[in-house]
Amino acid sequence: MSAILVVTPTLGESRWLDETVASVAAQSVACRHVLVAPAARMTELARRFSRVEVIAESGGGMYAAINAGLAAAGEWDAFTYLNDDDALLPRFGVVAQALAARRGEPAIAYGGVRLIDARGARIGAIPISPFPRLNRALYAQRIEPVYQHGTLVTRAAFAQLGGFDTTFRYCGDSEFLARACVRSVRFVCATTREVAAFRVRAGQLTKNRAALVEERRRVDEKLGLLAPMSVAQRLAARLVFRVANFPRYVERIARHGFVSFDELLTRIE
After folding, report:
1. Which residues of 243-269 are buried (b: 16+ CB within 10 A; e: fewer)?
2. 0.85 exceeded by pTM
3. For a surface tag, which of 30, 35, 62, 149 has the fewest beta carbons within 10 Å of its beta carbon?
4. Over pLDDT 90: what percentage of the chain?
5. Is 17 helix (H, G, I), strand (E, B) or coil?
C-alpha cells in the first residue's frame, strides 16, 4: 500500500496542532498529511509545517472540508482523518498492516482509542467492538462499535459510500461508519490496543450533548439502525461487547465514577 493519506480539517487556531502534525510524522508507516484550512491561513500554515500539504477548505463545515481534502489530494489508497487536537499513537501502523491485503476492496480497519485531557494525560479508553460481525447488532441497540479515531478507510469504501454527509455537524463520522456497516463494507478489527488518542477538552463540539442526541436520532432514522432484530442476537452482541471491554469500564469507574461515555465527555474540562 502507498502512503496513508491523513486529512486534518483545521482553522489553524488549535494549540494542539503541532502535536497532531508531529504524531503523524512520527509514524513507522509512510503517511501523507494534508491540512484543510481557510484560504487566509494557508500561507501561514504552509510556512509553519513545511512537510505537510495545505488545501483550501470549501467553507461548508468540517465534513465538507474532509470531502474537499480527499478530492483535492489526487491519488491515494487509504485515508484517515485526524482532528487538529487529536493524535495518532505509535501503534497506528498495525491498522495499516491489517488493511494492506484489502487495498482495492471496500474495507475499514480500526483499532482502540485512548481518551486524553487537554494536557495529554490519559483519562480512559473508548469501548470498541473486537468482532466486526457483531457491529450491526450493536448499532441496533444504540451502541457505537467503532469510532473514527483509529480507523483507516480504503478508497473503494469511500467511493462506495459517497463521502461524508455534510448535513451533519456533530455526527458525520458516526453516520459514515454506520452507513458503511449497513451497506456491507468489510470491517476489520486490527487490534483492540490503542492506536489513536481522542482529546476531551473544554469548548469542543462533543460537549453539546443535546445536539449530539438529536443528530444520533437522525442517523438512526436515516439508516434504519434500530430495525427489528432477534432478542438473542441483541443479547449475544451486547454481552460479548461488554465482556471484551470490561477493563475499559473498570478504568472509567475507577477514574470518574459510574458515568456513561457521553456524560464523561461533558464532564472533563
Report:
1. ebbeebbebbeeeeeeeeeeebbeebe
2. yes
3. 30
4. 83
5. helix
Q: Which residues contact 168 (CB under 8 A, 6 or more apart)?
A: 63, 175, 215, 218, 219
Whether 1 contacts 103, CB under 8 Å: yes
Q: Please report how many Cα atoms fall inside a 13 Å half-sphere around the Cα of residue 46, on the Cβ side.
A: 10
Nearest of 135, 133, 234, 20 to residue 7 by alpha carbon: 20
The long-range contacts involving 217-226, CB below 8 angstroms and separated by at least 24 positions, are 218/168, 218/171, 219/168, 219/171, 219/174, 219/175, 219/178, 220/142, 222/175, 223/175, 223/178, 223/179, 223/182, 224/182, 225/139, 225/140, 225/142, 225/178, 225/182, 226/140, 226/142
Q: How crowded is the C-beta side of 136, counted as CA atoms within 13 Å?
A: 16
The per-residue pLDDT for range 121-175, each reduced to its tens digit, is: 999 999 999 999 999 999 999 999 999 999 999 999 999 999 999 999 989 999 9
Residue 264 — pLDDT band, cuts 50, 70, 90? Answer: confident
What does the alpha-carbon distance between residue 173 and residue 194 come to, in Å, rounded to a whole number? 19
Calculate mean pLDDT across residues 107-117: 96
**Residue 20 one-letter amino acid:** T
Q: Categorize the per-residue pLDDT at 206 as very low, low, confident or very high, splitting at 50, 70 and 90.
A: low
In total, the chain counts a number of residues equal to 269
At 62, list the grid cell: 468540517
pLDDT of 263 > 90? The answer is: no
- Residue among 38, 87, 31, 42 nearest 65 (CA): 38
For residue 23, the cross-strand partners are none
